[in-house]
Amino acid sequence: MWLQEGCPVEALVALREALLDPAVFPDIGPAKELVLDDDRVAGFRFSRAEGEFVAIRQEKLSAVLGKTTAPAVLITALEEAGVIEGGHGARRGKQLHVRLISRANGCIVTKPRCLVMKADALAAFVEAAGRGRRSDEDAIVLA
User: Fold this and answer.
1) Which residues of 5-33 are buried (b: 16+ CB within 10 A; e: fewer)?
2) Structural domain contains residue 139
3) pTM score, two decimals?
4) Rounded alpha-carbon distances, angstroms, from residue 78 to 47, 103, 129, 138
């Protein structure tokens, strides 16, 4: 089964499993700092007044997807579905006011550029797409 234009469902399964793993997507709540203990962290969950969000670091997405698909294919599907929030300027990603601190090498990334999505919209997309629905269909059911 394929989603959108060539995005395999296996990529959605890999993304869903990664999102459920707190070692890959830790929840930082309203915090402004994340200490990275290992290289598995592909993004993080965070809170704002508007709700719960997921930030995905584009450079880590290929590790999440493995050999299922190229990250660009999944990103395009997420964009077409309107799940990714608009970036700053002509960019896809948003710079977030969070500091990422690597415990291994002491490297600090201030304001990383990430793909930002509302957590419930991303969950709905993954669920609906996994059943073969396209972004223009409105029959999305959340359990």
Assistant:
1) eebbbebbebbeebbeeeebbbebeeeee
2) no
3) 0.81
4) 21, 31, 10, 15
Residue 18 included in any domain: yes
Q: What pairs with residue 55 in β-bridges?
A: 44, 116
Convert 82-109 into a string of H (helix), E (strand) and C (coil).
Answer: CCECCCCCCCCCEECCCEEEECCCCCEE
Residue 114 lies in a domain: yes
DSSP state of 68: S
In a domain, 108, yes or no: yes
Q: Which range marks the domain in which residue 14 is found? A: 2-130
Position 26, amino acid = P
Q: Which helix (H) or strand (E) holds 134?
A: none
Per-position pLDDT tens, the chain of length 143:
344 445 677 888 888 889 999 999 999 998 899 998 878 899 999 999 899 999 999 999 999 998 878 898 889 888 888 899 987 777 788 999 999 998 888 889 999 999 999 999 998 888 776 665 444 444 333 33
